[in-house]
Structures are given as C-alpha cells and as structure tokens.
Write a structure and sequence with these properties.
Blueprint (H helix, E strand, L loop, with lengths): L20 E6 L4 H17 L3 E7 L6 H13 L4 E4 L13 H9 L2 H13 L6 E7 L5 H7 L4 E5 L3 H15 L32 H14 L4 E4 L7 H8 L7 E3 L13 H15 L6 E5 L8 H14 L2 E5 L23 H6 L4 E4 L4 H6 L3 E6 L3 H9 L4 E3 L6 H11 L3 E3 L15 H14 L1 H17 L5 H17 L1
The structure holds uridine-5'-diphosphate (UDP).
The site of uridine-5'-diphosphate has 20 residues, from helix 1, helix 12 and helix 13.
Length: 488
C-alpha cells in the first residue's frame, strides 16, 4: 500500500545519472536512536549513489560508553562521514526531565548550524538536499529553515506513537485537559483500541505531555516524516495518518535493522562466542531470551524474582542482566560476578539450563534457531528485530514509549503475549511476581505456536516490503525522488 499521495513509481534507476547531493543527519545520542539512523543511512547508500551522508554526532553527556558505541558504529560503517559536535555543559542527571533534555538538545542549535555551514556546505560543491533530524531533535528544523534547506524528521519509533504526538499537540491546542487517571480510556486515532491511562507513556506527566505535544507540533513544520515501520505492520496507524492531508507526508521505510549490532572485542567477544556456542547445542525454539534494551536494569529484589520465575518455568534461558545505574549516572552497569546478586543455589541449579550475560549480541541471538521467545521491554528496535527473525514477544515494558508499544503489540496487533503492559522503572512499587513470569514464559514456550506462526509471517512480510515493489521500497523511492527534486 502507498503511504503518501500517489504518483509513486519506486523506481530509482535513472537517479544514478543525476548529480550528487548531501544529506545531513542529526541523530539523538542514544543507542536505540543511532542504531536505526545508521541502518537508514546504509539503506540509502545501498540504493543509490546520489548522496553523500554526514552525521552530526551530539555527545552523550552522561555515559562515555554510548560515545564509544558510536565510534564503533562509524568504524564499521565507514561510508558515512561523522562530525562530532563540541560537547556543551549538560544538566545534572537529577534534574533530567524530557523538557530539560529537549532544551539541552536545543542548546546545540548554533553548533549544529556552524557544522552544517563550515564543515558540510563549505567542504563540498554538492548541495544539501535535506537535514534529517531525530524525533528528539525537531528543534533543528529551525536551523534547516534558516539555511533554506528542506527538513525531514527521522522517527525511529513506530507510526502509532508518532500519531500520539500529533494527537497531543492537537489536544493541547484544542484546550482539552491533560490526561487524568480517573478518565475513561482515550480514543487516540492512531491506536485501534481505546488506550488506558496506565499505558500512556511518560506523557501522563504534565511536563512530558507538553514536551511531546510541542514535538508533535514541530514535526508539522517539516517536509516529511520518515518512520521506521512498514505499512503492513501498522496498517491502522498508517491509514489514520495518511488520511490527514494537513500533515507532512509520511514515508514508512522500515524495518531498518542493524544486523551487525555492536562490534565486540576482548572479553565481550569471548562471551559472545560462548553464548552462540551454547545456543548451537540447544534444540530449535527451546530457549527463552530476556533482554531489556540499552537501559534495562532492575532493582535487586526484582532481579531475584525473575530468577525464581525462570527457575520454576523449567525452560532454557539466556538473560541479559544489568546493574542499576550508580548514583549520579544514567546508564546501567555490569555485574562482574553473578554471585554478587543471585543466590549460589540458583546459579548451581540453572548452570545447565541458563546463561547470563551483560550486553547480549541481541540480533545474533534472535536470529538463532534455538530461540523460541523473547521477554522484551518492547523498545521499537527490539520489536522490529524480534519480528524480523520470527521470535514471538512477551511484553515487559520499562521506560520511554515502551508501555504503549506493548499495548499496541498485544491489543491492536495480537503479536505478543502480555506479561505486563504498564511496568515503569520510575515507579518504586511496580513489581512483577515470579509466578506471573513462570506463567507467561511457560505459556509462550509450550502453547505459543500461534504467536510464533504470526511472528514468522510478519517477519516474512518485513523482508518482502524492502524488496523491489514492496511498500517500504516504494515509499523510499518516493523519498529519494523528493530529495533529488528538492535541489537538483
Ligand atoms: N541491544 C543489544 N544488546 C543488549 C541490549 C540492547 O544488542 O544487551 C541492542 C538491541 O538489539 C537494539 C538496541 O540495542 O538494537 C536497543 O534499542 P531499542 O529501541 O530496542 O531499545 P532502547 O535501548 O532504545 O531502550
């Protein structure tokens, strides 16, 4: 299906005879954001030789490991030029809210402008066809406007969530009250089912509501919104957005997946080899994989409860366990020894049925035939990766927009089994009991064939849409035509 106003051929064959143009990306400094942005840049370079791509890299102010992750990404993808934006003073972690974070990003505007003028425009005769900004970097749409360059939003989350930001901006502009716990479930156009208050992402908080509303309002000033999804997956959300001729065109070009993942070396690489070897020895669909994204780290009592739940499920498991951030830090750490946290009895009893790791080689793990289910925080990259490899999801959202992603997967799309839809890392009373973990894991592993079949079918569609004539291929072709038409 076409996701924009018609006139699309998807053909790009003739573009190689055209002149070259530059694309400037401004991703947000977060692993989930960078992974799909780099994936998108690679897709562009694989499809046409018309573009030179530069990424302006904003320093991650709280965790040097994200910056080294970025370095490793660009070391593997050398066709993409990267320019590091000078670091600026960051707000203290304790003061960090969505509003403060978007202001911190906005404070980079003069530096982003300088980099585009002095290091992109000045260094190449090729015109800049577009500045492509991350969903948290919508403020740079103003920089693009000032330079007379078209701007596009690269929305690395899903179409339904983009629809939510539009809904928020309009709800606010219409003078409607903010969300209240006592309200009935909300009719939000991009979701097929009414959305309960408890699964609304951060936006149940006033400040976040205003911040996401302001982002939704800003996106409308762009020339288009590129979404890492495919129209067959989120047909309801996509249809509601396409039906609106007052919004910028959307381009559903996904799924964009970095199949290489993070480059691992030293002990991380050895651990990876050990995990993959262990998986090789297991039967097809026999292992449940647990991983909660780049920031997933539970409190000690919750970790112990997961261990009890897994042990009583009797299933083989691979679990990425991270340590909660130290005071004043934002990113989780790693346990050097698991007996720091788990009772020796658990480690002894599960030594043949389970494997624990810090950073999991997630994409490789999901691609392995032994993996039969994924207990996931429902980050959008993880969701797409799991579906691509046909692994059914058990939902355990954690932060960001993950609660509403889990809701969409379970209620609107019927693609996942619910363990929890509303767990929040910042709510000290949220706790998932061992018996619920056991139940969800056993259910998926023993009776989840319908979900596995659906995930596999969705994975097949995901591959088809990227091939010539597929919906994402076509949407992408239209985007390229628009970029080349913009300047050449
Ligand atoms: N990831 C990984 N190993 C881990 C944790 C995360 O490879 O132990 C990767 C995962 O494959 C995905 C990304 O990091 O590509 C996480 O992105 P997502 O949008 O799912 O979640 P976020 O980290 O933004 O919460």
């Amino acid at each position: 299906m076409s996701v924009c106003k018609p006139k699309n051929t998807g053909a790009t064959a003739n573009t190689s005879t055209m002149k070259r143009a530059q694309l400037v990306f401004v991703p947000c400094p977060g692993i989930g954001h960078l992974v799909s942005t780099v994936g998108f840049a690679k897709l562009i370079l694989g499809r046409t030789e018309n573009f030179l791509i530069t990424m302006l890299v904003i320093n991650h102010p709280y965790d040097p490991s994200v910056n080294s992750y970025v370095e490793s990404l660009f070391a593997t993808h050398t066709q993409i030029k990267s320019i590091t934006i000078p670091a600026i003073a960051a707000p203290p972690v304790e003061a960090l809210t969505e509003k403060v974070f978007t202001q911190f990003i906005r404070d980079h505007s003069p530096l982003v402008r300088d980099a585009i003028v002095n290091q992109v425009i000045a260094n190449s005769p090729d015109p800049v066809a577009s500045v492509i900004v991350d969903l948290f970097c919508a403020c740079f749409i103003d920089v693009a406007k000032e330079l007379g360059v078209p701007s596009y939003v690269f929305f690395c989350s899903d179409a339904a969530f983009y629809g939510l930001t539009v809904y928020l901006s309009e709800r606010e502009d219409g003078g409607q009250p903010k969300f209240r716990e006592s309200d009935l479930d909300y009719t939000i156009p991009s979701y097929a089912n009414p959305v309960p208050y408890r699964v609304l992402p951060l936006v149940h908080r006033d400040q976040a509501y205003e911040t996401f509303g302001a982002l939704g309002r800003k996106y409308k000033e762009s020339n288009g919104v590129i979404i890492n999804t495919f129209s067959e997956l989120e047909s309801h959300a996509v249809n509601t957005l396409v039906a609106r001729d007052d919004l910028p065109s959307i381009f559903t070009v996904g799924p964009l997946i970095d199949h290489k993942g993070k480059g691992l070396s030293g002990s991380e690489a050895a651990k990876r080899d050990e995990i993959m070897k262990w998986l090789d020895d297991q039967h097809e669909n026999s292992v449940v994989f647990l991983c909660f994204g780049s920031q997933g780290a539970f409190r000690e009592e919750q970790l112990k409860e997961i261990a009890i739940g897994l042990e009583s499920s009797g299933q083989l498991f691979l679990w990425a366990v991270r340590k909660p951030p130290s005071p004043g830090e934002i990113m989780p750490g790693y346990y050097t020894r698991y007996d720091e946290i788990f009772p020796a009895e658990f480690l002894e009893k599960t030594k043949n049925i389970g494997r624990l790791c810090g950073w999991a080689p997630q994409v490789e793990v999901l691609a392995h035939r032994a993996v039969g289910a994924f207990v996931s925080h429902c980050g959008w990259n993880s969701t797409l990766e799991s579906l691509w490899y046909g692994v059914p999801i058990i939902t355990w959202p954690y932060y960001g927009e993950q609660q509403i992603n889990a809701f969409q997967l379970v209620k609107d799309l019927g693609l996942a089994v619910e363990l929890t839809l509303d767990f929040r890392r910042d709510c000290s009373t949220d706790f998932v009991k061992a018996e619920d973990i056991t139940k969800a894991v056993k259910y998926m592993m023993e009776q989840g064939s319908e979900y596995r079949a659906k995930a596999k079918a969705t994975g097949e569609i995901a591959k088809q849409v990227l091939l010539e004539g597929g919906s994402s291929y076509v949407a992408f072709g239209r985007l390229i035509e628009q970029w080349l038409g913009n300047k050449l």
